[in-house]
Amino acid sequence: MQENAEKLQKQPPQSALAYLCSMACWSRVVGWLNILGWLSFVIALITFHYARPEPNTILTHFFGIPVRDYWLITLSDLYLIALSFGLCLSCLSLALNIVMYRSSREHYWFNLVILIFMCVAGFVYYLVSI
């Protein structure tokens, strides 16, 4: 009993960041933020498919099928909301990941960086195609 008390007294006090990193729940929070970010990106991809202008192919031109050449406003708004939500979640998760594992880079998740670049590319594509 006395040995345990001596061990506790010899340990230096932990900083708040070290205590935060030692908690397993924050690792789960980063994981769930990552999953929610990718889920919102999948939702953005589905709404992108229905919101974008329809492609004009040889068959549509040959058979005289009318083709929509504009973005649907409501679905494009949902597309931008889903993209921005996914971008915010992935940036938050990446920031938490960098802060928590500053000393050891074994927990660095590259899929967050890929998700950030894909969301930014989705914004750029939308702005260019309007």
Structure description:
This protein has helices spanning about 1-10, 15-20, 25-50, 60-65, 75-100, 110-130. It is mostly helical. α3 (about 25-50) runs antiparallel to α5 (about 75-100). It has one domain (about 25-130). It has six helices and no strands. About 75% of the residues lie in helices and about 0% in strands.
Task: Give the helix/strand layout.
Layout: H1 2-10, H2 16-22, H3 24-51, H4 58-63, H5 73-100, H6 110-129
Concise summary:
The chain crosses the membrane at residues 29-50, 70-96, 108-128. With 130 residues, this protein is mainly alpha-helical.
> How many structural domains are formed by the residues?
1
What gross morphology would you assign?
elongated
Distance between the termini: 72 Å
Radius of gyration over C-alpha positions, nearest whole angstrom = 23 Å
Range of helix content: over 70%
Query: What oligomeric state do these chains adopt?
Result: single chain
Give the mean pLDDT: 84
- Main pleated-sheet profile: none
**pLDDT < 50 runs, ≥5 residues:** none
Task: Count every helix, treating DSSP H or I runs of 4 or more residues as helices.
Answer: 6
The secondary-structure class comes to mainly alpha
Keywords: Membrane, Transmembrane, Transmembrane helix
Transmembrane segments: 29-50, 70-96, 108-128
